[in-house]
Amino acid sequence: MSGRAQLMWDDAVTGYDFGDSHPMDPVRLALTMGLVRAFGLDRAVDVVAAKAAGDSTLRLVHRPDYVAAVRAASADPRAADQSYGIGTTDDPAFAGMHEVSALIAGQSVAAAEAVWRGETGHAVNFTGGLHHAMPGAAAGFCIYNDPALAIARLLELGAERVAYVDVDVHHGDGVQTAFWEDPRVLTVSLHEHPRTLFPQTGWPEETGAGAGEGGAVNVALPAGTGDAGWLRAFHSVVPELLADFRPQVLVTQHGADTHFEDPLAHLAVSLDAQRAVMAACHDLAHEYAQGRWVALGGGGYAVVDVVPRSWTHLVGIAAHAPVDPESVIPSSWRDEVYARTRQLGPARMTDGRTPSWKAWEDGYDPADRLDQAVLATRRAAFPLRGLLT
């Protein structure tokens, strides 16, 4: 296995652009890669531009009629068929949407292939993590579901156990749906409670079906949850599940929209806590998945202050060259920020927090809303896996 991580990047991914008024501004991708370069992390990884996913790969998850509808809208956005979720407010049609969506998916699939084949231990595609797309419809700013496609490709290559951990503020509904009845895939999602946030799914009682019963685990966090609660929830659920499941590959999704500055959600997590979970996922991959780790991006709409810093930390951790949170951000990158956005970029790689949490084993408070959420998850899902609540 190569000692160097792979970073999947092609400048053309910035063509994933729903328009000027849409919150998913592709400048977040360009600025992230710019910050990666400013810290010299592009020299600590192998930067790889993979091919776009072809139809046979897309059809591992998506219906042929849906792929055809995306192609048609890509060629003529005015003819988008809204019954497929395309041409809507969330997912406006744009010229070339099939090509760039397939390109992003191709990066995640290639990352999974490289990890499975032992070409690298860790692979990062921060342009991916588009976890809302369904087999037959676009949803939530997502056209093709690259995490599900990466997992499906791992299964096709012979993987028998793949764990997916999603810490985006929104429920990883599309990935859960893709593997709802598949016992080879464990999906774990920590997200804001569906009562207060799109897509209104991800209740603790959603645990899979058929042979996959117990294969879906959902932690629905109260709005306002901050660092201590978010980290407590993660560590009260994820390590125990991975220790039991023993995945051959760990796939993680690191949407940056849990941050307290994010305009589309209501959690209050800091950059420093996000970094702590990234580091925990890295350690868990080494402890339970033979070091095989595919790390993806996801949501994140504070496109200058938060997303580039968060995902640069992700790249650094995967490269075994972590960026010190106290690092001063190079002025060259801040100049790039101003040139692109006319905004002033952040000065350091930290929000100045020192995250900590109380372990579940030390007891819980039945009157605490965060502990109620964790307990609901453990009671719903853990017995189905033979684990104690």
Features of the shown structure:
8-stranded parallel sheet; 35% helix
Describe it.
The protein is an alpha/beta fold and 389 residues long. The protein is 35% helix and 10% strand. It is built from 11 helices and 8 strands. An 8-stranded parallel beta sheet has the order 2-1-3-8-7-4-5-6, with helices on both faces. Strand 4, helix 6 (173-178) and strand 5 (185-192) form a beta-alpha-beta unit. Helix 1 (27-38) packs antiparallel against helix 10 and helix 7 (227-245) runs parallel beside helix 8. The longest helix has 20 residues, at 97-116. The chain is globular and about 55 Å long. The two termini are 37 Å apart. The mean pLDDT is 98.
Summary of the model, kept short:
Helix content is 35%, strand content 10%.
Pattern of helices and strands: EHEHHHEHEHEEHEHEHHH
Number of strands: 8
- Taking the alpha carbons of the first and last residues, their distance comes to 37 Å
Helix content: 25-40%
What's the total helix number?
11
Mean pLDDT level: 98
Percent of residues in β-strands:
5-15%
> What is the general shape?
globular
Radius of gyration: 19 Å
Strand order of the largest sheet: 2-1-3-8-7-4-5-6
Structural class call reads: alpha/beta
How can the largest sheet be summarized?
8 strands, parallel
In the predicted model, the low-confidence regions spanning at least 5 consecutive residues are: none
